[in-house]
Structures are given as C-alpha cells and as structure tokens.
Structure to design on (417 residues):
C-alpha cells in the first residue's frame, strides 16, 4: 500500500474514486443529430466576423474573395484601421442598471434600430448571386439603412422593388460626363433613395495588387486559371452562369479591371464647385464619404454637405492613409455640432461600432463584414451577421454600464498609442 504523501501540515488525503452509474452518464451523452441543411451547418460554426471571413475564403474563388478582402498596395491602411480598434481601451462604469438595453438612434435624420448602416460595395453579385437585394432585405428586417453603390449590380428601381420597406441611400461617384451623373441622381430619387452619399477619395483608382496578381476583370473572364477554379468552387460558378449577367446596374457595360474603370470614367478634377453643383440638384440629405482630415470636414460642410463619412475607402485607395478611428475625435470637434459624422473602415465587430459612437460618431458603415457573410451563406449569412453584431453591441453596452446609445461618451473609450 502506497503511504499518503506528506503536505506542508501533514498527510494529504486522497479523493475517493468510484465507477459512474449508467444513469449518471446518460445526461452527458447528448449527441446532436446531423443538420441536413448545409448553409445552417456552416453558419452555426460562425461566432465572429473572422469566422465568416474564413468560411467565405473557402467557398469563393480566390480572385473574388481577394477583391472583397484586399486593399491597396501593401494593405497598411487596412491593417492600421483594424489595429486601432484592437488597441483601444474600454472604460466601464459599474453598478449601473443595464437590465434594458436600447440600441436605437438616428442617422441622417431618420430612425435606425442599431447604430450602423450597410455600406456601399461594388459588384456585390460577384460575391454571391443574391447580391444587393439580399443585403437590403436584411437591413429592412433589422431596421438599419442600406446604401447602394454606383458600381452596384442591382439598379435603384430593382432594389426598391426587392426591399420596399428598407431605408435606402445611394452612393454616387461623379463621372466626367455630368449629364450622366445627373441622370443617375434622378434615377436614385425616383427609386425613393432618401440620401446621396458622394464619394470623394477616388480621383484615380488605388493600386490593388491582389486584383492585379489574380488577373481579375469585371465580369470574371474564363481563362485556364478560372476554369481550374471552377472545379474547386462549382456552386459559385453555377450560380454566376445561370443567373443574370454580372454588370454594373448604374453604368454602361464594362469589360476590364475596376481600376481601369475608375481611371476612365470618374472625374479627377472634382472640386468643391462640383459639390455645390450636386447640392443644387439634390434636395435630400447630402453626405460626403472619404473625408480624412478635420480641415476637409469643415470645407465640405461649409459647401453644403449635411454629413461626412470619415473613411479611407477601406484602405483600398491611398495606402498609409490616416486611420479613421484616430481621426474621428478631431472631425467631431470641428463639425459635430453642425453635421453628422459617420465612421467607416476597419469595423469587424459590434464592439467596434460601440467604440466609434462613444467617440462621437452618429453611427458606422459596415461593408466587408457583410460581404464575408454574403459569401458564406447568401441572405441567411447576412442575417447571421446581423444577429452577431446586435448581440455584440448589446453585450458591450451592458458591460460598459450603458443602457442607451445616447449615453455613450468619450469617457467610455481611450485610444491607445
């Protein structure tokens, strides 16, 4: 018999052991039945935006995934934007009643159930054949706005028919042909879009090296490389080839790269005079997207804009551009009393959205995150993302000791570095 081991104050007693009875094991052996729905199986494994991104990466052709996931040059701007959110410090207040959490607020003068809108993204149907209508329908169901891009793959009229109860905004690039731009604005107005969001950070196309290396064209060309990719992603190709052709809904047909399109059609001579022209043709809320300094925020508000989006285009234009989250406080200090300030770029969680609102943003634009979700599971993927973001926003607010969006202040966040 092995003697008991001595401890600091004497022998240490051993824990008695026994064999478990079958009745005790039965509750532990709860094997789940296999789910016959492959989309639900995939989405049930996604607990974060990063999980959705990984599913999207596996299910989508490399060139298509890289178009959504990539950024300009060395992708420094995008990494810094995400790092700024990762490095910030939340400062909670304890012993607060957070039994009821109110996530509702207003953006561009209208109600939104959560402090974000879905951002404009180009060629969304390339990511998944359900495209912009799927995203807009989810936006309507959860009570947030959706923004259609000039380079979207659904027309303003078709999107209005697909999501009639959704608050809809339209993102505009001004072309060299002003008459064509005016026609796009007219069509957006007729389709019931309540705001125009003018993007101003694209005088030329950013150098997106992933697209160049992948040889991505719009629409994707059938080369030896893409034929090989078909074998790896048959469902994606089957959906692309058996649904309406991929083309820009607000543009004439185009065959080439996105950068070539920007350099050919968009106007590099855009100035404040053009913003004044747009203000004279549009009576609704006018937002300027792509503001990266407080001085420029002041200039565009003085020229007639109602709101600014602090954004570096998701890191897809100028690499090593200012980090939007770090720029936000200065822009809010400059124009926050006169205009709404919205944040874009680098957002990968509901906690990021809470942090931006605490620093003075009226809300955020969520872009890549919903593209990952769309690639992962179509409309159901975007719905899953909405559930994740909602839970993250509510949980972060509760842990901060904040029961209402309006009670978030800069005291709840500290930017590090």
């Amino acid at each position: 018999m092995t003697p008991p081991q001595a401890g600091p104050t004497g022998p240490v007693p051993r824990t008695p052991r026994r064999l478990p009875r079958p009745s005790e094991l039965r509750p532990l052996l709860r094997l789940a039945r296999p789910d016959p729905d492959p989309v639900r199986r995939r989405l049930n494994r996604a607990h974060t935006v990063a999980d959705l991104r990984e599913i999207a990466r596996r299910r989508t052709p490399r060139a298509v995934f890289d178009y959504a996931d990539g950024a300009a040059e060395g992708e420094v701007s995008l990494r810094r934007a995400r790092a700024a959110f990762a490095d910030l410090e939340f400062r909670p207040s304890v012993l607060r009643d957070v039994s009821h959490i109110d996530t509702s607020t207003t953006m561009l003068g209208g109600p939104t159930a959560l402090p974000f809108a879905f951002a404009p993204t180009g060629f969304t149907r390339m990511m998944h054949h359900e495209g912009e209508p799927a995203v807009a329908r989810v936006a309507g169901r959860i009570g947030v706005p959706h923004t259609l891009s000039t380079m979207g793959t659904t027309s303003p009229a078709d999107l209005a028919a697909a999501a009639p109860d959704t608050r809809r905004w339209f993102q505009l690039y001004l072309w060299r042909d002003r008459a064509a731009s005016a026609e796009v604005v007219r069509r957006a107005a007729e389709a019931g879009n309540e705001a125009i969001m003018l993007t101003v950070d694209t005088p030329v196309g950013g150098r997106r090296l992933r697209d160049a290396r992948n040889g991505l064209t719009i629409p994707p060309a059938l080369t030896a490389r893409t034929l090989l990719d078909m074998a790896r992603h048959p469902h994606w190709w089957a959906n692309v080839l058996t649904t309406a052709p991929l083309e820009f809904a607000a543009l004439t047909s185009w065959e080439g790269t996105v950068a070539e399109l920007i350099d050919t059609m968009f106007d590099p001579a855009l100035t404040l005079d053009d913003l004044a022209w747009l203000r004279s043709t549009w009576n609704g809320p006018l937002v300027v997207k792509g503001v990266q300094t407080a001085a420029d925020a002041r200039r565009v508000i003085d020229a007639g804009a109602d709101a600014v989006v602090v954004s570096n285009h998701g890191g897809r234009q100028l690499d090593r551009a200012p980090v939007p989250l770090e720029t936000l406080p200065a822009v809010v200090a400059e124009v926050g009393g006169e205009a709404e300030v919205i944040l874009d770029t680098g957002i990968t969680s509901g906690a990021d959205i809470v942090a931006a609102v605490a620093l003075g943003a009226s809300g955020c634009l969520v872009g890549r995150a919903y593209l990952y979700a769309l690639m992962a599971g179509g409309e159901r993927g975007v719905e899953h993302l909405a559930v994740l973001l909602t839970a993250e926003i509510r949980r972060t607010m509760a842990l901060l000791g904040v029961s209402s969006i309006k009670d978030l202040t800069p005291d709840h966040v500290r930017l590090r570095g």
